[in-house]
Design a protein that fits this description.
CATH topology of the largest domain: Rossmann fold
GO molecular function: glutamate dehydrogenase (NAD+) activity
Helix content: 40-55%
Number of strands: 12
CATH class of the largest domain: Alpha Beta
Mean pLDDT: 94
Largest sheet: 7 strands, mixed
Low-confidence stretches: none
Keywords: Oxidoreductase
Radius of gyration: 20 Å
Structural class: alpha/beta
Protein name: Glutamate dehydrogenase
Subunit structure: Homohexamer.
CATH architecture of the largest domain: 3-Layer(aba) Sandwich
Order of helices and strands: HHEEEHEHEHHEHEEEHEEHEHHHH
Strand order of the largest sheet: 9-8-7-6-10-11-12
Number of helices: 13
InterPro entries: Aminoacid_DH-like_N_sf, Glu/Leu/Phe/Val/Trp_DH, Glu/Leu/Phe/Val/Trp_DH_C, Glu/Leu/Phe/Val/Trp_DH_dimer, Glu/Leu/Phe/Val_DH_AS, Glu_DH, GluDhGdhB, NAD(P)-bd_dom_sf
């Protein structure tokens, strides 16, 4: 039976609980979302036909601050997926030590089949349905798969119309022209690159001597690849939803359009083509799965040749795949640390929305790198303390300690 996102997140929580002295009630509490909202909405197509579409918003935990997490448009959106992703967001925010809790949600629809006008109508209708459940001090959505800065700007505008005032802080990841910050779109990928470089240093590697393969050349993967390329790494393989390319001499990452910039452009680049599955098993120093969840499994983990795996996507490694890599001694730097750059930059944007102060690009990148380096150091110290733990266990232990202390200070009401 296929492992669900919620089952995987719960198993990871239980593993970490074995290393941390935390009240069992807190662990039981974190296994369940605090709120789950399911909506069925009418949606008008350009031809005038009306469809009923499902949407979810799962608010997992807010003990450390307002709920925070993306909204995705995907045909694979389910309640279980949103629950698992919301749990991961709770732990990601705790590892990054930003004052947010975890949430996730989305609409069950294929964004590739939406015109720009349909995307806007759907987004404004979703905002109307979500309006009672979100707020600048309660739940702050952000972009995710199938959504972008324009989507967030539409949410902000629709919400502001209902409130009769401009509410910049209702979402993050919006355009800088309406209160967003420069660098937010690049932040998840930059964070992955920073953590990758720290991991290479930890294992005694020079970034200029390593080869890197990136599955998922979208917002996260492309920016991670380009940032690593700029740092001197040799990015030899990249892929998007249509497939990938591989050149052992290296690829010009800045010349290859990302999936967001030009869907399918990766395979049109003049280099030998590889499938997404083949990319995962290339002989490289670093593998960055930055596409979708559940791609490293029991079926292929024994064929992964990378020396280090850095998770750019949410939940790209199944529990069985994780176990095989651990047994083989392949370090896996988990998603809740590696791709925390997005929520860290979202925190900067949220602050800007509250105090109206400018955040220049240089400041965003500088402070993002500082925060990611600090989170890495916290993980290193925990990893050194825990005998026999994986990097995933260590990162979850960091998060669980912080969540446990927050619950201890605030208390658990009967």
């Amino acid at each position: 039976m296929t492992e669900t996102a919620t089952e995987r997140a719960t198993r990871q929580l239980e593993n970490a609980a074995g290393y941390v002295d935390v009240d069992e009630t807190v662990v039981r509490r974190l296994k369940h979302p605090q709120r789950t909202h399911r909506m069925t909405m009418p949606f008008e197509r350009d031809d005038g036909t009306v469809e009923m579409v499902e949407a979810y918003r799962v608010q997992h935990d807010d003990v450390r601050g307002p709920y925070k997490g993306g909204l995705r448009y995907s045909p694979h959106v389910t309640r279980d997926e949103a629950t698992g992703l919301g749990m991961w967001m709770t732990f990601k925010c705790a590892v990054a030590d930003v004052p947010f809790g975890g949430a996730k949600g989305g609409v069950k629809i294929d964004p590739r089949e939406l015109s720009d006008e349909e995307h806007e109508r759907l987004t404004r209708r979703l905002t109307k349905s979500l309006r009672r459940y979100i707020g600048t001090n309660f739940d702050i959505p952000a972009p995710d798969m199938g959504t972008n800065a324009r989507t967030m700007s539409w949410i902000m505008d629709t919400y502001s119309v209902y409130e009769d005032e401009t509410v910049r802080g209702i979402v993050t990841g919006k355009s800088p022209d309406v209160g967003g910050i420069h660098g937010r779109e690049e932040a998840p990928g930059v964070g992955v690159s920073v953590v990758t470089q720290r991991a290479l240093e930890y294992y005694g590697n020079d970034v200029e001597d390593v080869t890197v393969a990136v599955q998922g050349y979208g917002s996260v993967g492309a920016n991670a690849a380009r940032h690593l390329d700029d740092a001197g790494a040799n990015v030899v393989a990249v892929s998007d939803a249509e497939g990938g390319v591989y050149d052992p001499d290296g690829l010009p990452t800045h010349e290859i359009p990302s999936y967001n910039e030009n869907p399918g452009a990766v395979t049109r680049y003049d280099a030998p083509v590889v499938t997404n599955g083949e990319l995962l098993t290339l002989d490289v120093d670093v593998l960055i799965p930055a596409a979708v969840g559940g791609v490293i499994t029991a079926d292929n983990a024994d064929r992964v040749q990378a020396d280090i795996v850095v998770e750019g996507a949410n939940g790209p490694t199944t529990s069985e795949g994780d176990g095989i890599l651990n047994e083989r001694g392949v370090p896996v730097i988990p998603d809740i640390l590696a791709n925390a750059g997005g929520v860290t930059a979202s925190y900067f944007e949220w602050l800007r929305g509250r105090n109206r102060r400018k955040w220049p690009l240089e400041k965003v990148i500088r402070e993002l790198e500082e925060e990611m380096n600090a989170s890495w150091q916290d993980a290193v110290e925990e990893y050194g303390r825990l005998d026999g733990a994986s990097w995933r266990d260590a990162c979850y232990a960091v998060a669980l300690r912080r969540l446990g202390k927050a619950y201890e200070e605030r208390g658990l009401w009967p």
